[in-house]
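hi!! sorry for the late reply, been swamped w classes. u asked for the two structures so here they r. pasted raw, havent cleaned anything up. first the sequence of the first protein and right below it the tokens
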Amino acid sequence: MCVTACVITGCASGIPHTIVPDYDQRGIRLIALLPVDNKTNDKQAAQLLREEILEKLYFKGYPRIPLDMVDKKLTTDCGWNIEANRECNLPLEIVGKRLGVDAVMYCTLLEWKTSFISVYAPTTVSVSLELKDGRTGTTLWSSRYSVVDRHYDFTKKRLELKACQSYEPAIREIVDETLSSLPDGPDSVGDASPEKSFWKLW
């Protein structure tokens, strides 16, 4: 029944995703956004994606937990080597407990590329997101989305320029579309300083 409910919810929203039926009753407020599992060769793209997700989570009502603080705690408290392993595959019960959060969000940058074919150059950006309970490791929500931006011009140089200019809008579109299916957090956007409660809990 749970699986059926997840599938139905995903189909109804328009963007493929899964979500536990009782998400609203789980009290999810503090979400730690882990470093991006980057399957591409572009480090800047992964950082841009992570920053966009963090900002979107904040405007959906989840307190902004600084990325450098998350990285520092993963390194010093959990023994994660940021240089040797970009994918944070530490046991989730350790990560959730040490970070003191309700949930942990994993993000994978699957594609970030442009193919040049004569006067045509499609740019593809693909991302998957997964939110897991910080205490039990249960997957609470997940989504995956791809954007293909098509460019046409007579020279490769002009095509390259158009491709470069399309990456950031593509990332913003992906973040907006995927996170649109994630329920809003308990702190409304109108609250003056949702971070105040976060600092008391950290």
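now the second protein. again sequence first, tokens right under
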Amino acid sequence: MDVRIIATTADPLRVIWIAARTCYSTLSPRELWESAPAEEEMLKLVRKIFHSHHHSVIEHCTVTYAVSGVSRTLLAQYTRHRVGISFSVQSQRYVSERSDRNDGLFGAVVPPSVQANPEALRVYNDTLQTIQEAYDVLNDLGVPKEDARFVLPGGAETNMVTTLNYRSLLDIYHKRVFTPGAQWEIKAMVRRMAELLIEREPWLAEFFPEPVSVR
């Protein structure tokens, strides 16, 4: 799995502060923008916003990620979070998974529980090889890629570009990272998304709580 930020709102702290102040100020948004508030002044208001859950104003800030090497199973889970999230996903209808174009075998995510068990890993890899052979035969028989893909497993790799506003990222973080029960792959992806954004905007760290330990 590879997750990278490729675009994000410039000066998001200031954008959120101005959006929040606009709701209660006689000054115009332009005047607020030009007022050059101190960072601590902005943080004071933004903390109140986050802790009071008045999150509409943080929707003005977005972040775009390039994600590769994740499974179609993860994609099915991730796309359930529809509000405030956009997806552009590699198409199995148009991108061939033939073995002669993919180093002999289509890309697939291997769960840690399978990796840790040699016999399970053998069964898993043998099954992937059988599926690859079936996909190739279907193609040779004239079955179009969009129909041959039906034999591909949920573990088949895919790539996507996804954009979230900050409110949506905070929501999915709570549901897939902070709250116990999320599957390992989507948990790792969303946690990495948050880590990358916090690296750019350290003031956000306090609003993304550490995951709950399960004993």
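hope this helps!! also noticed smth abt the second:
The two ends are 27 Å apart (CA to CA).
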